[in-house]
Design a protein that fits this description.
- The chain is of the alpha/beta class and 254 residues long.
- It has a domain of 176 residues: Rossmann fold (3-Layer(aba) Sandwich).
- Strand 4 and strand 5 form a beta hairpin.
- The longest helix is centred in the last third of the chain and has 18 residues.
- The protein is globular and about 55 Å long.
Length: 254
């Protein structure tokens, strides 16, 4: 049985640059199995860059990244594909293929990483769509026929289709109205508990933080400040104080 205290993501000395601009400067972060860690920060602070670096979509200038004890930066393509099967990613806009049905979108990782027959793919997709609260008739619709909240759920079903141990979520409630965002938070919380998932989430949503985050990692001044919500909220850094103690922050903890 996996150790609940096991470190599944370990980032040390991470330095990243974009167009010559320093984004992260010697960033450290350890994520343990089963926790929900939320990464927050101002616009351009490098939240999504951190996520993309961990999943191998961007290469840092320096530092180390290990997932499940494996060195992401030293892997060849085959080894990386094996590791990618153990996590799922929900990108900010859902990143669904507009020319494919919802079921076909959910099946994309199955086609890429497995050789299961089409009938089984159909059955797996139906199970995952039900798991995220989408009715059976959603499978044959195209993304354009779905609401924003339904598209997020379809993208989450795709992220879960290979039964991952880690789910990476990039701004999962962005663009959703408060009711849909709250329902999506509840869905993530329920799935995390029932499936034993580790959740790495980039968000700006204070309600999401208070609803489901185990710990918070704040990107400010190219560094990470990590702790529980209460610990981070007590940090005197001006951006943190404005974020957590401003009008929206006060409303989120009422």
């Amino acid at each position: 049985m996996a150790d609940a205290g096991e470190t599944v993501i370990s980032v040390h000395g991470l330095t990243t640059k974009l167009g010559g601009k320093l984004i992260h400067d010697q960033v450290d972060l350890d994520v343990t199995r089963g926790e929900v860690i939320a990464v927050v920060g101002g616009s351009g602070s490098g939240k999504s860059v951190l996520l993309r670096s961990i999943v191998g979509l961007m290469r840092p200038a320096a530092g180390s990244i290990e997932v499940f004890g494996e060195d992401v930066l030293a892997m060849d393509e085959n080894a990386m594909r094996g590791l990618q099967r153990r996590w799922g990613v929900l990108f900010q806009d859902g990143a669904l293929f507009s020319s494919q049905t919802v079921a076909e979108n959910v099946q994309v990782p199955l086609r890429e990483f497995t050789d299961v027959p089409q009938q089984l793919m159909n059955e797996i997709a139906a199970i995952k769509l039900a798991m995220v609260g989408l009715s059976g008739d959603a499978a044959d619709k195209f993304p354009s026929e779905l609401s924003g909240g339904m598209r997020k759920r379809a993208a989450l079903a795709r992220a879960l289709v290979l039964d991952p141990e880690i789910v990476f979520l990039d701004e999962p409630t962005a663009g959703l109205d408060p009711i849909a965002a709250s329902a999506f938070d509840e869905l993530i919380a329920n799935l995390q508990k029932s499936l034993g998932l580790t959740v790495f989430m980039v968000t700006h949503d204070l309600d999401t933080l208070n609803a489901i985050a185990t710990r918070v990692a704040v990107l400010v001044n190219r560094k990470l400040i990590v702790g529980t919500i209460d610990q981070v909220r007590a940090d005197p850094e001006p951006w943190i104080q404005e974020y957590f103690s401003g009008p929206r922050g006060r409303a989120a903890i009422r």
